[in-house]
Known about the structure:
The protein is an alpha+beta fold. Helix content is about 30%, strand content about 40%.
Amino acid sequence: MSRGTAEVLAADATLSRSYRRSDGTVVGMFVAYFAQQQVNAQIHSPRNCMPGGGWKVESLEQKRLRVGADAQPAARMVIRKNEHRQEVLYWFRTRGGSIAGEYALKWDQVRSALAGRQTNAAFIRYTAQLSDSSAVRQLMTLLQPPLDQILGDVGLR
């Protein structure tokens, strides 16, 4: 990501990876960790960032995705830029667990702050061409255990 984008995002740590299968399918994964939610250092929603990058949001829904043996709450967006259509799956992880919606995230953060608890949180996003949605779910299943371990190490269950 560019320096300007990183400054706007204001995350304490990020991980961005592209995974390519032998058939050419590419799945992107992005994780941003915020040690504390505060003014100018809060999780940004793809609902704002994707259109800012020139993508048109065609649909947005909240759903529960099967990730291995567990059901994962997630927001699913379909976006378009010219002839390219992508599926974007994302959610937030807080000390209270996984959350799919932006308003639910804000409410969770307000409750934590009022109770004097830490407000650290992470944003997790997977992207792929719309036709490659099965590859996204396969990668999520593979990466969920190590991702859970890493986030657990910083208190996010």
